[in-house]
Amino acid sequence: MENMEVKEAKGKLGVLIVGVGGAVSSTFIAGTLSVRKGIGIPVGSLTQLATIRLGKRYENRFPRIKDAVPLAELKDLIFGGWDIFDENVYEAARHAEVLKKEDIDAVKDELEAIKPMPAAFDRNFVKRLHGTHVKEDASRWELAGQLREDIRRFKAANGCERAVVMWAASTETYIPQSKEHDSLEAFEKALKEDNQEAVSPSMCYAYAAIAEGCPFIMGAPNLCVDVPAMWELADKNKVAISGKDYKTGQTMLKTVLAPMLKTRMLGLEGWFSTNILGNRDGEVLDDPGSFKTKEVSKLSVINTILQTETYPELYGNIYHKVRINYYPPRKDNKEGWDNIDITGWMGYPMQLKVDFLCRDSILAAPLCLDLVLFSDLAQRCGFYGIQSWLSFYFKSPMHAPARVPEHDLFIQHTILKNTLRKIIGEPTLDYLD
Ligand SMILES: NC(=O)c1ccc[n+]([C@@H]2O[C@H](COP(=O)([O-])OP(=O)(O)OC[C@H]3O[C@@H](n4cnc5c(N)ncnc54)[C@H](O)[C@@H]3O)[C@@H](O)[C@H]2O)c1
Known about the structure:
Elements: E1 12-18, H1 23-36, H2 46-49, H3 65-68, E2 77-83, H4 89-96, H5 101-105, H6 108-112, E3 117-118, H7 140-158, E4 160-167, H8 184-192, H9 201-211, E5 216-218, H10 228-237, E6 240-243, H11 250-263, E7 267-277, H12 280-285, H13 288-306, H14 312-315, E8 319-326, E9 335-343, E10 349-357, H15 360-381, E11 385-386, H16 409-423
Parallel strand pairs: 1-2, 1-4, 2-3, 4-5, 5-6, 6-11, 7-8
Antiparallel strand pairs: 7-9, 9-10
Bound molecules: nicotinamide-adenine-dinucleotide.
């Protein structure tokens, strides 16, 4: 098999994060800096730890992904970004209270040097936050222009050859897709007319990143880059985009358990999921508008996986409910309960109970690292538009309108690895050997 033309990962890679002062971002950055100093273990990261089988089973070739695939090296990453608060990432990591002081202090100097640029923010989109470090009095079009300048300035000041932009900021309020999102022409008109309802701040970031040729990753469930106008812009500028909403805890479990039920042709009557969470994300999601965005994202997986219309006798009448409750004492240590009512032979009822005492940002950080490195790889391979091979990382994987999204974690994993095999000119696996 021919090797694909992959540009070398030469020089520095800028990692620009929207919401760089948040819990996920500061945990991701502090962890990555520790790993590159040789004091942390990148648990949860495929790019750093996983192997990939190449060739037939008997050939015994299982190199690490990072040794077989031309990824950027951690030493070449330069972090920056935007936030509505002006504290540096050391202060942000301390406030987030995810990592222990000693773990944050181990990379203190580097974290202190990362200072957020003023954000593009509109309180109507995140009702629970009052940002002070924001770009003032700018129309949506001006915001997009200022963000483009920020990207260019950051790259020049840090000598970056390339940059990736990732959204790890608060979930914006729910907005439906409207005619302004249907084409690039309509979107640019809305942007220039300063249509503040149809154009969210997150769309200004996505527009700026794609216009600057930077891959864009959408870690929250907002519409943002998942509209035809943005797909068109990404195709036009040949930029890789991916999203939405990191798949970390409860939904990750859902996309493992639901395929199990379907594979064994077991029935499902109801799935009740509830969470308690006490970090800033939990506070933002306590607002009904932001929760609605999250709810849409969390609800979508089960019906698609179970193909409810194909199997009415098993999945014709599922009651699916998702709740997130803001409960400050738990901070970032979310607890997610699932009660799953299933049926077996002759329709006899059974129950599954899952209680996942997880840590939100600890689960999200390795996904951020993988997504940054894989998005940069995609861009160097000349891949552009929606990167469905990265669905593995998202709750609501973006997909072309005519295609059904793939939610099953293990199928997503196979797609990801087969894409990597193609990139390095190795045969894809069908597991029959
Ligand atoms: N497991 C997970 O942690 C997980 C999983 C899926 C999705 N997410 C999403 O990731 C995002 C980050 O989560 P978190 O726990 O770090 O939240 P957080 O509240 O700690 O961090 C969000 C940061 O974004 C900043 N911000 C808000 N609006 C902004 C804007 N317009 N521009 C720049 N900065 C802005 C906030 O000031 C804050 O520092 C949330 O949207 C969350 O829903 C997290």
